[in-house]
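Collaborator request log, item 7. Partner lab (contact: R.S.) asked for a structural prediction of Homeodomain-like protein to inform their binding assays.
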Amino acid sequence: IRVHIIKWRYDLQLPIHEIAKLAGCHERTVYKFLQLHRAYGQVTNPYALPRGRPRALNIMHLNYLRSLLLANPSLYLDELHSQLLLNCDTDVSLATLS
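Returned to partner:
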């Protein structure tokens, strides 16, 4: 929707209140996206820190777990956990694996 806000403003020359109504957001939000677009040429701040907690398992871990399960679909979570710890040196909870 952020990209649409930019198009509505600069391509269609719509007023801010109409853009806010189309986007289903507040006018302040529209102004914020327009300001980001002017400052960085995009609708996100490239210098902002990532939000949220870092992921416990990355794509390499997920691919490894997938290959284990494809080879042996009857593995239990505790067996997956011990293989992940042994071969990838990654210790996560069983709840993370489930």
